[in-house]
Amino acid sequence: MAGIHRERPSATDLKAATGDPAKPLGDDIWMSPGVSNSYALATDDGRVIVNAGVVFEGPPRRQAFADIARPTQAIIVTQGHGDHWGAINALRDGGTEVVMHSNYRYWRDDNERLMGYRVPRLQFAFQKFTDGVADFLKTVDPATIDFSFPEPTITFDRRLELTLGGRRFEMAWTPGGETTDSLVVWLPHDRVLFTGNLFGPLFGHVPNLMTIRGDRYRDPILYIESLNTVLAFGPERLITGHFAPIEGADRIAEEVTAMRDAMQAVHDRTVEKMATGADLYTAMREVRVPDQFDIGEGYGKTSWNVRAIWEMYAGWFQHRSTTELYGVAPASVAADVVKAAGTDALVEAARRHVDEGRPVQALHLTDLVLAAEPTDNAARSVALEAHEALRASTENFWEKAWLGKSIEELGTSV
């Protein structure tokens, strides 16, 4: 059977939350789509919300849930990224419990320490959402928005069971997702499992063990174990952080098993390459998801995952060159190389690489030239063509976004 990723939307289909009424999913569950979906569950004593969205989605989310079982008894956060907890302060009522895994503090602290580093590196892919924040702040008095981190009132380690308004909730730690505070929420009576972004934003795709926007590495073994946790529940409906639920116990089990086994195969093959003396770049080129698993690469990429696995086990020193050990970048000698080889010769060699289908080799050369002579239009032109060739060969969200940003920057002076 073809993988479910072929049926589902892509990351480019993500849109910010609106104030439209939340969509009923059955089982007294309502969905408000957004940067990350937010869900309201009705109980006898009010509503329980699973994930809140980014901070500027707070007012529209409150409007979307306005007619659903008030007040808000609890908000459960499935992971520590800001698109899951950012709008909590707008959605909580007096006495609302906030439930997070006890590892939440690491992601809270990362956010506080690294905001200035990470936000600029996010914009090339999610400019529409950072623009959304700016537009939102134009419509409100920023002093009325609570940007503070919503400290949890309930935390747990491995498992937590709660009964809220007569409805049973079970939480399980699943640290193999995007964060080590990731959790899933199980409704045993309905056989529904909320997984947030355990699978990444796009269900049915390989995970992002290393995201190029800048975040911590993710552990493939913990990912595999977390998918086993999902399988052990045997859900009949899987509600993820984005887009529509996945229905049917058999389909869910088939897809999650394939995702797990594909990651296991990539992990094992990478470790085999390491043990038998291959180099990192060979492993990145040669290790692939086995053909029997129809798993997409629309958000994560196997070659990137191979590098993440390699460096998780072995660190960044590749034993290629003594220069790896020192804080002197290769570009520091770019001017010397360009002077010795000649700009025209390097650009001509780069052109041949592009013409013969080797765009990355071309970029190695144009990077040298542009490090020494940033305004060289011939080098910029070749680099532009190399980026365009790479963009034409990928459907990966992050790769296309980065290549698009680079093409735009190169095109401004060609």
Could you characterize what this model shows?
- It is a single chain.
- The chain has 414 residues and is of the alpha/beta class.
- It has three domains: 4-259, Metallo-beta-lactamase, Chain A, CATH 3.60.15; 265-314, no CATH class; 327-411, Alkyl sulfatase, dimerisation domain (Serine Threonine Protein Phosphatase 5, Tetratricopeptide repeat, Alpha Horseshoe).
- The protein has helices at residues 58-64, 82-85, 88-91, 104-139, 220-233, 249-275, 280-286, 302-314, 334-341, 343-355, 359-372, 377-392, 397-411, and strands at residues 23-26, 29-32, 38-43, 46-50, 72-76, 97-101, 154-156, 159-164, 167-173, 183-187, 192-196, 237-240, 246-247.
- A seven-stranded mixed β-sheet has the order 1-2-3-4-5-6-7, with no helix packed on it.
- Strand 2 (29-32) and strand 3 (38-43) form a beta hairpin.
- It is globular and about 75 Å long.
- The protein starts with 22 loop residues before the first strand and ends with a helix.
Break the fold down into its secondary structure elements and pairings.
Elements: E1 23-26, E2 29-32, E3 38-43, E4 46-50, H1 58-64, E5 72-76, H2 82-85, H3 88-91, E6 97-101, H4 104-139, E7 154-156, E8 159-164, E9 167-173, E10 183-187, E11 192-196, H5 220-233, E12 237-240, E13 246-247, H6 249-275, H7 280-286, H8 302-314, H9 334-341, H10 343-355, H11 359-372, H12 377-392, H13 397-411
Parallel strand pairs: 4-5, 5-6, 6-7, 11-12
Antiparallel strand pairs: 1-2, 2-3, 3-4, 8-9, 9-10, 10-11, 12-13
Helix pairs in contact: 5-6, 6-8, 7-8, 9-11, 10-11, 10-12, 11-12, 12-13
